[in-house]
Amino acid sequence: xxxxxxxxxxxxxxxxxxxxxxxxxxxxxxxxxxxxxxxxxxxxxxxxxxxxxxxxxxxxxxxxxxxxxxxxxxxxxxxxxxxxxxxxxxxxxxxxxxxxxxxxxxxxxxxxxxxxxxxxxxxxxxxxxxxxxxxxxxxxxxxxxxxxxxxxxxxxxxxxxxxxxxxxxxxxxxxxxxxxxxxxxxxxxxxxxxxxxxxxxxxxxxxxxxxxxxxxxxxxxxxxxxxxxxxxxxxxxxxxxxxxxxxxxxxxxxxxxxxxxxxxxxxxxxxxxxxxxxxxxxxxxxxxxx
Length: 290
Known about the structure:
The protein has helices spanning about 1-20, 25-50, 60-80, 85-110, 120-150, 160-195, 200-220, 225-250, 255-275, 280-285. By secondary structure, the chain is an all-alpha fold.
């Protein structure tokens, strides 16, 4: 009975996944993000005209911040759907999300300086964190592109039956992550209504990703105990920890931690790929999605 329950969840994931990458969903996502952007513009206009009570909540760039927040929701869902297909690609998606967070923060802070700009030393110093976030996002974008380009997907299981089982477990994890993510979304909405401040629980979600990565690492031990594979999976989990710290770190430190995490996974990927051609045990591994 429990097995049938799990199979039902896996089928539900397969159904959602089959529709996620379709053109219809892409159009729906675009329309939703655009709709929230227009709503943000309307609220900003009402605030500018003095018709809105919570004037401190809506800066001139609130519409961009709102659109980025909605876009991040769909990016996180895309990350969840990637986990069963490739742990490595899901790590790359985490870096994509961090780069978007940095861009969102830059837009958010920049909106505070549109009304009055005084080009003195103090103002230039206040711009430095914004510049740091912007160029940090570009660096992460560059690192992510190199990471995807050099990534090789290798099977750690010994048979197709084991492979199906491993992917099935990751699909179940994705289902539970999706439920948790929507639960956090409901919590954010309630908290925003009560405090009149938008609280985005992506920090807590990245904490859940850390435990997910560690679970996948430990579960993979039933298929392989090869040092190279274990180190690779462990480095991915450590990168997620760094990215989680990035979300809580102050200006400059957040970019530094994200870049360190990116350079770490790039280094591990480069060394791993180099060893593929030199270690006989790794050469025998069949190249398919893992």
